[in-house]
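Supplementary Text 2. Reproducibility record for the structural model of the 210-residue chain.

All settings were left at their defaults, and a single model was retained for analysis rather than an ensemble. We include the record here because the model underlies the residue-level annotations in Supplementary Table 4.
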Amino acid sequence: MKVTVLGAGNMGSAFVKQLVRSGHEVRVTSRSATEAEQVAAANPGANAVAPGNSAREADVVVLATGYSEAVSALRSIGDLRGKIVLDITNPLTPDYMGLTVGHSTSAAEEIAKAFPGTDFVKGFNTVFAQVLAAGPQLGSGQKVPVFLASDSAQAKETASTLARSIGFEVVDAGGLRNARYLEPLGGLNVYLGYGAGLGTAIAPTWLRQA
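Retained model, structure tokens:
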């Protein structure tokens, strides 16, 4: 697939790494051209591009910015009508120990309101950047799942194909409104990793009776 990664931070660079490894055509863009170029240089095969119309040729745009910057960042990369955006944001407070949005809406729903005609998929927000960069295997046969929520079956299937291509299991988490559950789950994961000292080599999953 042709994928534009919007954001050159820890999650953005981890996405670029895994997508390039899996043979996707990857472009990375950021408000900092230097950071985008550094990520591309660290992952031969990826290309750093200016925001401009960097979404134009993309099959999927990975939104890897902070929640507060998401709408302006998406607007900077061109017309998104008819595009698929994979939103990995969590609306975290400055201390990372709480959420700024929740219960009656979600970050994903609020971002989507600004882009009618664009298909949003919530996902990967429960995965630490360190886990994403290292890959989905946590040892002893444990594989990290990705929960995907969207109102578009086609967009969710495309995001599922992308997630599976880089080795992750996929759990269908229903419609986009279920981001209201996924974002608190992401917040809990952050608390357990940092606040409770469990470290970043963790990920939430659901157990099923055999």
